[in-house]
Amino acid sequence: MAKYHETPIDRTFFALADPTRRQVLERLKSEPGLSISELAQPLPIKMPGLMKHLAVLSDAGLISRTKAGRVVTVSLAARPLSEAADWLHHFEAFWNVSLDRLAALVEEEGEA
Amino acid sequence: MAKYHETPIDRTFFALADPTRRQVLERLKSEPGLSISELAQPLPIKMPGLMKHLAVLSDAGLISRTKAGRVVTVSLAARPLSEAADWLHHFEAFWNVSLDRLAALVEEEGEA
DNA sequence: TGAAAACTTTGCTATATGGCGAAGTATCAT
DNA sequence: ATGATACTTCGCCATATAGCAAAGTTTTCA
């Protein structure tokens, strides 16, 4: 098979495909500058599990770490999110079309 | 571990995390009503591989199939895409902030 | 009827993911 | 120097993903 998540956008969408990781991003949005322990505290998983999720988020460029003493502060990087949004954006015209119209289109095509 | 892609939004982001699947969606956007063979034609993978990708897209609700004789026509379903875009949307304010301002924030937090 | 076409399913393989406990590395406080 | 704190890495496991060839199904055409 091809490489698993080769491009940046692959890594971004993959990173977003997990509720724990999305929760981390949302938490960092509302409470910037949390440490890794603080992020871990409400989560139902152990530290090594969180470390793996943070590695996925780092690989996607969605977070960056800053070490101060023994505390690692995590911050959100918005760029990949905006790139993912851009990709979705060029479908916007499509999802604004009513479902009725879509159904009509499908039937039309079915006859061809 | 928790279930792999339990929620609709998990499945949507996961489906988007692969270039073949994104290519299928883009192709369906510009050429609605393609059959599975037509979708397969430009792709560097065999039919069983495409079938798996289509299954992932179906599970995410991103496509639907319509069978006419032996030909299966695939059409794009926009709803999950718009929901994914909505999730990203609530980070928009964040990525509109300049990177300079972000850097400042990080330093500020570093001192606390 | 018989064969081709279009799709589907069935194994099979290799690699990735997501979790854990345990052990390791810094850093800070006593 | 000792020990605690904060994070990191290591092995290990179970399951998922992504690919293929080959065999199976349904529909169409000769």
Features:
Metalloregulator ArsR/SmtB family transcription factor (chains A, B), elongated, 2 strands, homodimer, two-stranded antiparallel ribbon, mainly alpha, 112 residues, Arc Repressor Mutant, subunit A, DNA-binding
Task: Please render the helix and strand layout as text.
The structure is a homodimer of 112-residue chains.
Chain A: H1 8-16, H2 19-30, H3 36-40, H4 47-59, E1 63-68, E2 71-76, H5 79-89, H6 92-96, H7 99-111
Helix pairs in contact in A: 1-4, 1-5
The structure holds a DNA duplex (30 and 30 nucleotides).
Describe the structure.
Two copies of one chain form a homodimer. Chain A is mainly alpha-helical and 112 residues long. Chain A has one domain (8-111): Winged helix-like DNA-binding domain superfamily/Winged helix DNA-binding domain (Arc Repressor Mutant, subunit A). The first copy, chain A, contains seven helices and two strands. Chain A has helices at 8-16, 19-30, 36-40, 47-59, 79-89, 92-96, 99-111, and strands at 63-68, 71-76. Chain A has a two-stranded antiparallel sheet. In chain A, β1 and β2 form a beta hairpin. In chain A, α1 packs antiparallel against α4 (47-59) and α1 (8-16) packs across α5. The interface between A and B is large, with 47 and 45 residues. The first copy, chain A, binds a DNA duplex (30 and 30 nucleotides) through residues 1-2, 4-5, 18, 20, 35-37, 45-49, 51-53, 56, 67, 69-72.
